[in-house]
Amino acid sequence: MISNLSKSSVKEAIIRAFVECRSTTLALFEGMDKATFCSQPHPDFSPVGWHLGHIAYIESLWLLERSAGLPCLFPQYRQLFAADGLPKAKRVQLPELKEIRYYLDTVREKALDFLETADVEQNERLWRFLIQHESQHCEIICMVLELAKISISDKKSLCTDEQSQASLDFEEMIQIPAGEFEQGSNSIDALDNESPAHQVYLDTYWIDRYPVTCRQYRAFMDAGGYQNSRWWSKAGWEWLQTEQVTQPLYWQGDRAWDNHPVCGVSWYEAEAYSRFVGKRLPTEAEWEKAASWDVTATVLVENCNCDRVARPVAQPHGVRLPQSGALRKSVLPEQACLHTGDRLFGQTTPVNAYPGGQSVYGLYDTLGNVWEWTASWFDGYQGFQSYPYIGYSQVYFDQKHRVLKGGSWATRPWVLRPSFRNWYYPSVRQLFAGFRCATSDYH
């Protein structure tokens, strides 16, 4: 039963999140021309306009058709905006922005009407899933927009001269002592692949305090890292011979970016650099423990589906979480935040810019600068149950996708948490992805 928060309060929180999320979604399209709206800068990703229509399609499908039992409001869009409707290359023939806006607005109006009478206790998880679904597609929109302008070097660093030139020990590693921690999440916000939370024992290991910076990665490039098969796995070297790349996708040659995390690398590139410096990529469990777990912390947590209890929790750092789902009382002050969910920066920031956002173990930038590759294959935890459909996560448990953790500057706050799991093929480098290294034997 819902306690502490009344059903009306839960509904108000959902409405607030829906409004805030949609506002930041639409802001991405302000002043956008039709060519940008419909273009496909990369064959693996749909046009930004398609993602906007898909958001409305999924909201209509799950809330209006499958939950409220209403007929499809816009059957003419079913094939166009369904994920399995058309090949990506055929998604460029899109309605005008104002037409898709009408689609969005009409579906949203009906959805909020349904919420007035819906059983929030029964359907809350679905509503929160849809907020996160929109958030995830908005990050893809940001990525596609970056791909469209990747040849234009018009970015300017937002770091100060002191930050960009600071002589800090970015090679420093943090020792994480052996012991158990709770991996995953049972929160009402948790997506199916995050659950159930479970105990994991890890031996002592060391992990980089900071994500690998552009300055560090330049050393790999300057040493011929892209030309020497010594550092690459067999699969990675084969990938490199096919792709013929010599630097990260979002590489900035300007030294002002030296203290920013390297961004736009594939898993193969991250693995090669790790070998170059005599380390390895952390496992997903190692990353999550170092980024979030505090065995001494006990805070009051309010859940929408459980009593208020005091228990150890994974502490989020470096980000102001939205006040929904598990409402944590230990949220950092705004000045310690790396990302507030409103594209405050629109790019990466120096890895040493937010000392107030360190994890309990002392890691910087675990949430909201760049996604971080891990050594782990994406798979379900023991006891996994798909939600809301098998195709969301389970079809990707194929030992072909690597896990990424942490979120990027474009990740919305509704999906910024240590337990969140992203997954992609190791060959993909279009993500706002970097990494940090780990080792089991540090001297």
TrEMBL record:
Signal peptide: none annotated. Residues 17-141 form the DinB-like domain. Pathway: Amino-acid biosynthesis; ergothioneine biosynthesis. Pfam families: DinB_2, FGE-sulfatase. Residues 171-438 form the Sulfatase-modifying factor enzyme-like domain. Keywords: Iron, Oxidoreductase. GO terms for biological process: ergothioneine biosynthetic process. This is Ergothioneine biosynthesis protein EgtB.
